[in-house]
């Protein structure tokens, strides 16, 4: 039986831009702009430089753009570098299966769009479709913990975000490569069989993070591109990789699966509309306490010197040692530190690359503030299973208690800024543009050198009108922006 595999494969290759509702098209543009910004912001990081040096060392035919490089490379190499860059700052969008896959969705599709000289409509369609595939695989496999009678009874021994990142890339790549149903079926088998190892448990226990965290988004994107190209050339894979007792969910370590969640509303319920955007470059689980923290700072005009102590109330995912670390030693570890995130927010450090620059990490005022932050459990999210629907979280409370001016200011956020399910937290187009500006070197208000402002606007304008443009217009605008970043002293 290949019912699940073939049904999802057929959806992937048969869906076209004309099938997308307008809100889905608009969200694909927003995701594209946000993801490009996250990649641009990571160019001058150690991990970003390694990705660029690695791709430069590989060489390859100049078929696709590499963010931050004046040289083009092969589709697989470009997908690798760009997707890895997009995940370096942990500022990229997060789907409520607790994973990021906008990075690989966008950059696997963009690499193949450039290879095949596609239109912007093709790229936007592939982003929407690929995102849907990744989201559905994540929802199908469910949470990375064991749940019995509605209660969490333990963590999975295996599992992790790499699965959904890879599947999103496979879906996007199969769509934009214009595979037929049989070729897509084989591409699914090829990509699913070669997904990275599930390392979530190892990540959770590690205070010092490797540069790729729990999965290298670049490799996941490269797997998607390679799977589609191999399928197009006639290579074969397991045609039933999503079906039967030995399906992907089982050998990837999930204790159960929900076939209904995989296919429910296929082609009508577009999962890209459920993604969350990050106003701050850190783990999404920190955003709920950060949202509450920011509200209190603004409501009571609290300044860092007013604050003697902050108690973070975190959900069960954000209580492991890495989240409690007060003095993270590197960028990747700092992305999971409640203390560092609250310190950067308290001192109004622009929420982008500057959060992790050496000057910020070593600032004595930042360090002193981190010392005053402790982490405990948020009682209302202690049973995280209560906050799940169809394998997804739509709100997991987190909060803070700020000790200042002789009193305690407390707040809890069920939804974090950037969540699409409430009007108060929805990330507007203007917020996405402003975040993009910070990532490329402008300040939080969009101010900076006029040439850089104009180049950033040009990229955003191209993305927002991409359905009427060829993809190479985006490549040209991106190259001009990188040149402008170099000219004003932002490494690119």
Automatic annotation (TrEMBL):
Q: Where is the MmgE/PrpD C-terminal domain?
A: 280-438
According to the entry, every stretch annotated as the MmgE/PrpD N-terminal domain falls at 6-255
Q: Which domain of life is it from?
A: Bacteria
**Pfam families, alphabetized:** MmgE_PrpD_C (PF19305), MmgE_PrpD_N (PF03972)
| Coiled-coil intervals, chain numbering | none
Q: Name one GO molecular function term.
A: lyase activity
Matching InterPro entries, A to Z?
Answer: MmgE/PrpD_sf, MmgE/PrpD_sf_1, MmgE/PrpD_sf_2, MmgE_PrpD, MmgE_PrpD_C, MmgE_PrpD_N
Record PANTHER family:
2-METHYLCITRATE DEHYDRATASE, 2-METHYLCITRATE DEHYDRATASE-RELATED
**Family in the record:** Belongs to the PrpD family.
Q: What is this protein called?
A: 2-methylcitrate dehydratase
């Amino acid at each position: 039986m290949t019912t699940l595999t073939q049904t999802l494969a057929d959806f992937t290759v048969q869906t076209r831009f004309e099938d997308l509702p307008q809100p889905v098209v608009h969200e694909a543009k927003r995701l594209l702009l946000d993801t490009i910004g996250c990649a641009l912001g990571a160019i001058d990081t150690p991990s970003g430089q390694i990705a660029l040096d690695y791709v430069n060392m590989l060489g390859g035919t100049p078929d696709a753009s590499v963010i931050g490089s004046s040289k083009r490379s092969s589709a697989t190499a470009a997908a690798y570098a760009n997707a890895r860059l997009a995940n370096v700052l942990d500022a990229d969008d997060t789907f409520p299966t607790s994973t990021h896959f906008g990075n690989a969705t966008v950059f696997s599709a963009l690499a193949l769009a450039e290879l095949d000289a596609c239109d912007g409509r093709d790229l936007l369609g592939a982003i929407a479709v690929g995102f849907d595939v990744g989201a559905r695989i994540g929802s199908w496999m469910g949470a990375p913990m064991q749940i019995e009678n509605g209660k969490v009874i333990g963590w999975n021994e295996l599992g992790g975000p790499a699965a959904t990142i890879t599947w999103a890339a496979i879906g996007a790549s199969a769509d934009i490569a214009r595979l037929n149903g049989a070729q897509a079926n084989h591409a699914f088998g090829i990509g699913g069989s070669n997904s990275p190892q599930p390392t979530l448990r190892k990540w959770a226990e590690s205070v010092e993070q490797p540069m790729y965290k729990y999965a290298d988004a670049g490799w996941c994107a490269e797997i998607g591109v390679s799977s589609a190209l191999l399928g197009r050339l006639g290579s074969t894979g397991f045609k039933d990789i999503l079906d039967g007792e030995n399906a992907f969910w089982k050998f990837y370590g999930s204790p159960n699966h929900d076939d209904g969640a995989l296919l429910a509303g296929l082609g009508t319920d577009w999962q890209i509309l459920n993604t969350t955007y990050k106003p701050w470059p850190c783990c999404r689980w920190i955003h709920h306490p950060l949202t509450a923290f920011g509200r209190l700072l603004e409501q009571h005009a609290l300044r860092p010197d007013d604050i003697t102590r902050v108690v973070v109330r975190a959900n069960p995912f954000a209580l492991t040692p890495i989240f409690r670390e007060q003095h993270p030693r590197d960028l990747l570890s700092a992305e999971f530190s409640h203390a560092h995130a609250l310190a950067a927010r308290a001192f109004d450090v622009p929420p982008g690359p500057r959060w992790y620059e050496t000057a910020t990490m070593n600032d004595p005022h930042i360090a002193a503030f981190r010392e005053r932050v402790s982490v405990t459990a948020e009682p209302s999210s202690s049973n995280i299973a209560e906050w799940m629907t169809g394998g997804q979280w739509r709100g997991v409370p987190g909060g803070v208690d700020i000790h200042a001016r002789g009193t305690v200011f407390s707040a809890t956020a069920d939804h974090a800024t950037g969540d699409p399910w409430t009007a108060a937290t929805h990330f507007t187009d203007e917020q996405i543009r402003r975040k993009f500006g910070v990532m490329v070197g402008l300040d939080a208000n969009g101010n900076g050198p006029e040439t850089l402002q104009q180049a950033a606007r040009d990229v955003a304008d191209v993305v927002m009108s991409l359905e009427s443009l060829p993809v190479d217009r985006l490549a040209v605008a991106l190259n001009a922006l990188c040149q402008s970043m170099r000219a004003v002293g932002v490494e690119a």
